[in-house]
Design goal:
The chain has 214 residues and is α/β, with parallel strands linked by helices. It has eleven helices and nine strands. The protein has helices at 3-10, 24-33, 48-62, 79-88, 100-108, 120-129, 139-142, 144-150, 170-176, 190-194, 198-212; strands at 12-16, 38-42, 70-74, 92-94, 112-114, 116-117, 134-136, 159-162, 180-183. It has a seven-stranded parallel beta sheet, sandwiched between helices. A two-stranded parallel sheet has the order 4-5. The two termini are 22 Å apart.
Length: 214
């Protein structure tokens, strides 16, 4: 199975942000134990050290193929960041916005592109540049009616909801037309990682996988 189909089949991308590279393997193992096999490690743009930690975390994950997890890079804002993520081992790129040059370059490099968009113009721009999946951000905040309206004229795209998504609204968002989700803090909670309560992350993952598998 190719990665794009795996993403569509699994329906959940775990978003990891601000987790130390030293904790990344235990975090990934907790997610896999709960059935989640796709992980986005997001760039931390607050400092050069944050960016380095992101890339180190991706490299650490790639060094452990036995986990069976597919790894992408998130909050990708520039072409240079695409290159750095690829060098570290990322197989897909997720952005908060829809920059055509980033999308095109990602596709030129043979990686999956998942840019963030909200308006019909942004969605069309992203699709024209070659985006594989449109990340509606903040999808949970916009609610189910928004995706229903978008899918009228723009129903040919694949949509994932990201932002303000959790167990309380996932079923409703799926029913409205989303194909899947990117989920951060309500799944990979930094405090749980800090306290090494990885079994709780596994428990949340199990709940979420039950919802998307109906």
């Amino acid at each position: 199975m190719d990665l794009l189909n795996k993403i569509f089949e699994d329906k959940i991308i775990a978003i990891v942000r601000g987790i130390r590279s030293a904790d990344i393997i235990d975090t990934a193992a907790a997610l896999v134990a709960g059935g989640i096999r796709i992980m986005e490690v997001a760039y931390d743009h607050r400092s050069p050290e944050g960016i380095k930690n992101t890339l180190d975390a991706i490299r650490e994950l790639k060094a452990h193929p036995e986990l069976g997890i597919s790894i992408g890079c998130g909050t990708v804002l520039t072409v240079d960041e695409v290159d750095m993520a690829i060098e570290a081992g990322a197989d897909f790129m997720i952005s908060p916005d829809a920059r055509p040059e980033v999308i095109r370059y990602t596709k030129e490099k043979g990686r999956i592109s998942m840019p963030g968009a909200l308006t019909p113009t942004e969605i069309s721009t992203a699709l024209d540049a070659g985006a594989d999946i449109i990340k509606i951000f903040p999808g949970g905040l916009m609610g189910p009616d928004y995706i229903k309206a978008l899918k009228g004229p723009l129903g040919h795209a694949h949509y994932y909801a990201v932002g303000n998504v959790g167990t309380e609204n996932m079923a409703e968002l799926l029913a409205a037309g989303y194909e899947g989700f990117g989920i951060g803090g309500s799944l990979v909670n930094a405090k749980l990682v800090e306290n090494r309560e990885f079994e709780k992350i596994t428990g949340i993952a199990v709940q979420m996988m039950r919802i998307v598998n109906g």
